[in-house]
Amino acid sequence: MAKKKFYVIWKGTKTGVFTSWEACKKNITNFKGAQYKSFSSKDEAEKAFKETYDVYKGKDTKRVALSNEELTLIGKPIMPSISVDAACSGNPGKMEYRGVDTESKKQLFIQGPFEKGTNNIGEFLALVHGLGFLKQRNLTYPIYSDSKIAINWVKKGQCRTNLPITEENKPLFDFVKRAEKWLKENTYTTKILKWETKAWGEIPADFGRK
């Protein structure tokens, strides 16, 4: 059984909180500049309607809110730490990745854009770049990523993508080979941790293009 959603319309034929997609669609179709979002609970939707669309633009508002007990169990991110993320326009498409200080969100490194890449490859490269960044500075901060796939690839020491190599993405795959070589030749004590998006929101390194 699908979970019920609630829809907020800030700009439309009618505005407010609606309890069905049909009602929402009716009031945004053919309305130029319509502003709307779906939410997982009525309380969240009513709270959002009292604020502006810009507060929620680009954010994932469909996640079910965690209970206080679940939030306590998860805890808070470890500080200091690095957070990494990648962004890809298309699949494959132009891809870039970066790492930031988790607390201040200060950008520590960025690479790209690379042609004909994928988000998973970017997440993998970002993690390896972060490992090298920390080792070079003799730091042992943990690294956060919201990609289980990339974390698994790094632990296995190999980027297990099925993306074929072409003339366009050869420079990207050269980067991948360098990353795999680094993992093979280096040891590290840095902990690679999964970013708990449901509890903490978007990872600080997020490019904000959702």
From TrEMBL:
It is found in: Cytoplasm. Its EC number is 3.1.26.4. Residues 76-210 form the RNase H type-1 domain. The keyword Cell wall biogenesis/degradation does not apply. Keywords: Cytoplasm, Endonuclease, Hydrolase, Magnesium, Metal-binding, Nuclease. Its main location: cytoplasm. Pfam families: Cauli_VI, RNase_H. SUPFAM superfamilies: L9 N-domain-like, Ribonuclease H-like. It catalyses: Endonucleolytic cleavage to 5'-phosphomonoester. Endonuclease that specifically degrades the RNA of RNA-DNA hybrids. Belongs to the RNase H family. This is Ribonuclease H. The lineage of its organism: Bacteria, Pseudomonadati, Bacteroidota, Flavobacteriia, Flavobacteriales.
